[in-house]
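Encode chain A's predicted structure.
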Amino acid sequence: MRCFWLLITVSMLGQNMGWGQVINGQVIDRETEEALPYVNIGVVELGIGTVSNRQGVFSLEIPEGEADSALFSAIGYISQKVAIEDLTEKKKVWLAPTSYEMQSFEVLDKGGGRDKTFGIKKGFPAGYTNLASNKPGDEIGTPIKIRKPTYLKSAHFTIDRVSGDSMIYRVNIYEFNDGEIGKNLVSENVLLEGVQKQGVVSVNLTPFELVVSEDVLLTLENIQVDSEEHNSRIGFRYKSVFLRNRNIYGRIGDNSKNVAGEFSEIIQGSALNFYFVGNEL
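Encoded structure for chain A:
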C-alpha cells in the first residue's frame, strides 16, 4: 500500500493560489554570524513553507500581496516572525539561540546493562509508505512506547525501497500522550544523511545525551532527497499492530514543521519499522 496523501494535498494547494512573489535569502546565527542550516520557514496564514539548505539559503514562493510575514523556526533558536517587506529588502534573517531545558536524571552507568529495543524492529511487513511530494519539511513517524526513564543510544529506520542516490533527513523526537503530540525533545539537529540504501539505516544518539521517561513520537523529516523526478520515493516499511492502538503520523512540508502543519494519522492500526536501542535506567 502506498500513501499519496502528501502529493494530493500539495497539488490542491497549488490549484487554489496564484503564485507570484519569490523571496530569496539566508538565515544567520545572531551570535556567531554563521549560516544556519535546515531552518523551517513558513507563512502561517497560507500554510506554505520551506527549509533552508546547508548554507542557510532559502527560496520561498508566495502569492503576491497575500501575506504580511513569514515565521522562521529552528531547533535551539528563538522563533522569529519577519515582515515580507523586510525579507525582500534585507535578504537576511538573524536568529538568536535559546536555552533548552531537558528533564534530568542521574545516570550512573549509561554504557552498562543490556541494550534493549524500543519500537518495531522485525515482523512480517504489511506494506510500505512514502512522502510522495518529496518536499523539504515532509515528515513521517511512529509512536514508541517508553515505560521508564531510558537512555537512548541510537535510532534505526527500515527503508524498503529506494530510487535515488543521496538523502538527508532530520531525526525528531516529540512528546506523545494518547495521540497528542507535544514539543520536540531534541535540542539540536540530529541528521541522518548518506547514500540511499535498502535495509536498516541508523544514527548514533549518544552525543546528544537523550533520556526520555514517557512515550514519544519518532519521526524523520525530509531535508533533502535526490531531486531527480524518478528519484523521489524512498519507501518506509510498516507492520500491522491492530491490538496496540498505534497509528502512523505525518505532515506535509508545505506547512513547514512547527509553523502551520499539524500531524495527521495517515495509516491506522500500523507502525513503521522505526526503533530505538538504549538502556532503561
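Helices lie at 5-16, 84-90, 256-260.
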